[in-house]
Design brief:
alpha/beta; TIM Barrel; binds adenosine monophosphate; binds zinc ion; binds fe (iii) ion
Length: 285
């Protein structure tokens, strides 16, 4: 080991949400928490939204924390939602921001449809309340709706909301306005980002993981809160066998998943450098 390697003992959590999507912490609170956890870098990776990146960078400027601009996009495939992370994305680019704006509007139309379906189960929720729970900004999603269901005592837990009503293929589920698998890599690359397949275990079908490798993801999120050690090792091997970057992150949603996950999964800082090198290939700096 190189004793002069300054990246040693430096760690990054490459999957973090804020209250601009379905996390409960503001970008500033996320930054402060990351510093408390001793992290050197975090990727702000909200669903279909890059609006938290600016405030996070501004707040982190005075502290020694690096913010990696990112977002988590959704691919709809065979009725399933598959997530793809985009690192070092050109988050200020107007064309890319417009694409995200379209998706956020689609999310509100999707909310209308889910609320309609819930009515058939005798559950009447106000759209405005769900939007309030989503802090009236960014991406409105199912975690917000699950919270509204819990608040209205229609369910006794967030998990029950997903299991009974709004989980994939459940009766009140409506597909997100997502990308086609072939499309997502192109959209990310066009905006200078590095596409990485998020939490492959949740796809529940490794042949789809292989398909995304063929389509051109540049990394696999082998390490994730919901992936066991054995699963992580399996996806790490899959990534290495294909010359892809092995990434990882906690997928912290503030208190959105019941506890603060930030820093619970982290990768050596060298992974950030690999992502940077890859981004430079896509968009020469
Ligand atoms: P959306 O982007 O609106 O489809 O919502 C995705 C969010 O819902 C992510 O934060 C997921 O972690 C969460 N989610 C999806 N399915 C479940 C589930 N079965 N249980 C708990 N959370 C879920
Ligand atoms: Zn989420
Ligand atoms: Fe995800
Ligand atoms: Fe996520």
């Amino acid at each position: 080991m190189n004793p002069f390697d300054l990246t040693r003992n430096r760690y990054a959590d490459l999957h973090v949400h804020t209250n601009f999507s379905d996390g409960t912490f503001s970008p500033e609170k996320v930054v402060d928490t990351a510093v408390e956890k001793g992290l050197s870098a975090i990727a702000i990776s909200d669903h279909d939204c890059v609006d938290a990146i600016g405030p996070a960078i501004k707040h982190a400027r005075k502290i020694s924390l690096e913010i990696i601009p990112a977002t988590e996009l959704t691919v709809i495939k065979d009725g399933k939602e598959i997530h793809v992370l985009a690192y070092f994305i050109s988050w200020k680019e107007k064309r890319f921001r417009d694409v995200l704006k379209g998706i956020q509007e689609g999310r509100l139309r999707r909310l209308d449809k889910m609320l309609e379906k819930l009515k058939k189960f005798g559950i009447n929720l106000k759209k405005s309340r769900v939007i309030e729970i989503a802090f009236s900004k960014g991406s409105v999603g199912r975690l917000h709706l699950a919270k509204a269901l819990l608040e209205a005592k229609a369910v006794s837990s967030i998990q029950e909301a997903f299991n009974k009503y709004i989980g994939d293929f459940k009766p009140c589920y409506v597909e997100e306005v997502g990308f086609r698998a072939e499309e997502v890599i192109e959209v990310i690359s066009r905006a200078g980002g590095v596409p990485v397949l998020a939490h492959p275990k949740t796809i529940g079908d490794d042949s789809l993981v292989s398909e995304f490798i063929k389509l051109g993801v540049r990394g696999i999120e082998a390490y994730h809160t919901d992936q066991s050690y054995t699963q992580s090792k399996k996806y790490e091997k899959m990534a290495k066998d294909h010359g892809l970057i092995v990434t990882g992150g906690s997928d912290c949603h503030g208190m959105g998943k019941g506890r603060v996950l930030l820093g619970g999964v982290k990768v050596p800082y060298s992974v950030v450098e690999q992502l940077k090198q890859e981004a430079e290939k896509i968009r020469p700096i």
